[in-house]
Design a protein that fits this description.
By secondary structure, the protein is mainly α. Helices cover 72% and strands 3% of the residues.
């Protein structure tokens, strides 16, 4: 097989970098650090002003006009939640969530890891404007947490990575429900009904066997997402709902696919070559059939998830971090760290996650309602419970929904950084010795 210099020099190393399990976390971390550096440099005014530029779409009097920061949080992050929805559907169908016996421990541990952080936050902020931030320390950043876990390599068993993945997905689903129920402003019932209509179209299309990802994209974005955006219900919820309507069946079963591929590859081998780089018409027809059956053997759900995961890891989440992680530290940094909002977030992420996950896990195993996954010991659970306190992306996202007061926003973001760093380093050190 011929290998071009550009493949060796650029494409192959780039592919290895993208497919590395830790890469997404590294890029996200680099974006967050870049945002912090810019927000505390002579370019800080340019940095903050840039995200406030207005961008509009529409025609005639039907125009949606929002700041760039708003489009990122409501629009771009919907892609992130769409991929979360795809992962959730896959896990329910064939993953750990499809096996109640294996899923009960991480699912209930995840719920404990949501409830205790919220309660700890409320012990510091039981009233006033700061009260609304109780959802901030509840979710785990799956990219950062898994990135740290994968950096440990063979030191941790595969079952621990699965445990953390299921726990983080439960956290993300819980965060979506919290956003929909508690961080939604005024609701336009008319637009919500329009959204329900577009959702019905997606469901009916699935039942009728429509497999075009373009169709689901047009109806899901141009219909469902836009209707939710205008309804007052947070538009990212539409991402998860749309993902659950994506077909998860194939047009050709695996045995028939193998027979077709064997027949087509034999035909290609027997075809007469033309001794140049171009294919003959006969070969081109055979390759086209191979492509058709290959696409038919893939479910639209898996095809979309495979295609969109790199987009989320290397564009959506880094851009979100660039737009939201830039905190300008002033002379009052020390006061912000020890503010009730910041302490509540830190306590929720570091202590709340650890206590909630560990307590529920211990209780379930002691009562013999669940068992530890194969290859895991309690030190592994301690490490994961600490690592789950890395709440970077989702915590920043909920912060912007929870607070109007800029001072509370800054205090919460400082708490998120401090709490996530403590949890990430603590979890890494515990698991390194496990």
């Amino acid at each position: 097989m011929r290998s071009d210099p550009i493949d060796k020099i650029l494409l192959a190393p780039l592919a290895r970098f993208i497919n590395n399990s830790t890469t997404g976390g590294i890029v996200l971390f680099a974006a967050a650090v870049t945002a912090l550096v810019l927000a505390n440099s002579p370019l800080q005014e340019v940095y903050h002003h840039f995200w406030e530029h207005t961008f509009s779409i529409g025609f005639d009097e039907y125009i949606v006009s929002q700041s760039l920061h708003h489009w990122i949080n409501d629009g771009l992050m919907s892609i992130f939640f769409f991929v979360i929805g795809l992962e959730l559907k896959r896990e329910i169908m064939v993953g750990e969530l499809s096996k109640p016996k294996n899923a009960v421990l991480p699912i209930l541990a995840g719920l404990g890891g949501m409830a205790v952080p919220a309660l700890l936050y409320l012990t510091f902020n039981s009233s006033g404007g700061a009260f609304a931030g109780w959802g901030i320390p509840m979710a785990t950043d799956i990219a950062f947490a898994l990135g740290i876990l994968y950096m440990l390599g063979d030191r941790v068993p595969v079952s621990l990575k699965v445990f953390l993945t299921v726990l983080a997905i439960v956290d993300d689903l819980g965060a979506v429900l919290i956003i929909a129920l508690f961080y939604t402003t005024e609701i336009s019932m008319m637009n919500l009904l329009f959204g329900g209509g577009f959702l019905s179209i997606l469901i009916i299309a699935n039942l009728l066997g429509v497999r075009s990802t373009l169709f689901y994209g047009i109806v899901g974005i141009g219909g469902l997402w836009l209707a939710f955006l205008l309804s007052g219900v947070h538009a990212t919820v539409a991402g998860v709902i749309a993902a659950l309507t994506i077909p998860a069946n194939v047009k050709i079963q695996d045995k028939k696919f193998v027979l077709k591929m064997n027949a087509l590859t034999n035909d290609f081998e027997k075809s007469t070559p033309n001794n140049v780089t171009l294919l003959t018409y006969e070969q081109l027809h055979i390759v086209d059939r191979i492509r058709f059956y290959s696409k038919a053997a893939l479910t639209p759900l898996q095809r979309l998830e495979h295609a969109m995961t790199p987009l989320v890891a290397f564009i959506v989440m880094p851009v979100f971090a660039l737009a939201n992680a830039g905190i300008t530290f002033s002379g009052g940094f020390a006061e912000s760290v020890v503010s009730n909002v910041s302490l509540g977030v830190i306590a929720g992420l570091v202590l709340g996650k650890f206590i909630g996950i560990l307590a529920i896990s211990k209780l379930l195993v002691t009562l013999k309602l669940a068992v530890l996954p194969d290859g895991l010991n309690w030190r592994h659970i301690y490490g994961v419970a600490m690592l789950a306190g890395v709440g970077f992306t989702m915590s920043l996202f909920i912060t912007d929904l929870a607070f109007v007061d800029l001072e509370h926003v800054i205090q919460a973001k400082i708490g998120i950084f401090v709490g996530s760093i403590i949890s990430g380093v603590g979890g890494f050190l515990i698991l390194r010795k496990a």
